[in-house]
Design goal:
about 300 residues; 15 strands; 3 helices; alpha+beta; 5-stranded antiparallel beta sheet; 10-stranded antiparallel beta sheet
Length: about 300
């Protein structure tokens, strides 16, 4: 059967304007620099806190070390930490959406393939896993970040898929929607040492001048999906899913600028690794499908 004609393409509204993917990739440098600086600051603060907690736990370790069963508990927690990272992700529900231009107010729905993809990470130590993937052709993105079982480590991961937008009318009010589906598993495990794990998803809109020069972020949204920070026990393995997590952002746009509309997601984990009488571990897995990005101008 012949493929059905999808009608007038959304890009026909933009008057032939577009920003090349390579130029967009270079324009992400300021964001990456900001993310790297934030990561380094988080690592510094965690290390300062850990130095004080090590002093605090010293007399506790002296007591625990006299209990022969304590080492077995630590071994069991380490194994729970390790086995969680090996779990296979659950199937991800993907909604089928068609690209279309909406009559009435100027509106459009964009579907894969999107125009751009991006991923980024920062690490300290030697993580057990640090994998980030974004695929504009399918609208899929994921990350898997797990701390080292033996030594201290921290990881930040970010992924995004996005599409070009240029206002087909003068200065106006723009609304953006998307309802990505996702599955996740994450957790932290700890005894007398710190562990943290968090994950989020959101919209990010970057602005460019008409020559393609980056002029700043006009939307920088991060909607929390999970977060925990522990020094004792942790939350263990957690799982979640959503077939359509609603994202929305309003903003003012004008024809003196071009825009990239991204759906992005991120996670951060930090832990100390496992020793004989104390230790900690943490990990995040997130898989996302972005079936459509919709905008309405007016």
């Amino acid at each position: 059967m012949a493929k059905q004609d999808r009608g007038v393409p959304v890009k026909s509204l933009y008057g032939g304007r577009f920003i090349a993917p390579e130029a967009v990739r270079h324009s992400m440098a300021p964001l990456e620099e900001r993310l790297t600086a934030e990561f380094k600051e988080r690592v510094k603060r965690r290390q300062q806190l850990r130095e004080q907690m090590i002093k605090y736990r010293s007399p506790l370790v002296d007591v625990v070390s006299k209990d022969k069963g304590s080492t077995e508990v630590i071994k069991s927690l380490r194994q729970l930490n390790a086995s969680a990272q090996d779990r296979k992700p659950r199937a991800l529900h993907r909604t089928r959406v068609s690209e279309r231009i909406v009559a009435g107010s100027i509106a459009a729905t964009m579907v894969p393939p999107y125009d751009y993809q991006w991923s980024w990470s920062a690490v300290s130590g030697n993580p057990l896993a640090n994998n980030e993937m974004a695929d504009a052709s399918t609208g899929s993105m994921s990350f898997s970040i797990w701390t080292d079982l033996n030594n201290g480590s921290s990881i930040s991961g970010r992924v995004a898929v996005g599409s070009y937008f240029y206002p087909p009318a003068e200065n106006n009010f723009l609304q953006i929607w998307s309802a990505p589906a996702f599955t996740d598993d994450w957790g932290d495990w700890c005894v007398m040492d710190g562990a943290s794990a968090d994950g989020w998803i959101g919209l990010y809109v970057a602005s460019y001048d008409l020559a393609g020069g980056f002029t700043g972020a006009v939307v920088d949204q991060q909607m929390p999906l999970w977060a925990d920070s522990s020094w004792w026990s942790g939350v263990g393995l957690q799982e979640g899913s959503n077939s359509g997590f609603g994202l929305y952002a309003p903003l003012q746009v004008d024809q003196d600028h071009q825009y990239i509309i991204w759906v992005w997601a991120g996670g951060d984990v930090s832990a100390a690794g496992w020793d004989t009488f104390w230790g900690s571990g943490a990990g995040d897995d997130l898989s996302v499908a972005v079936p459509a990005i919709t905008w309405e101008l007016g």
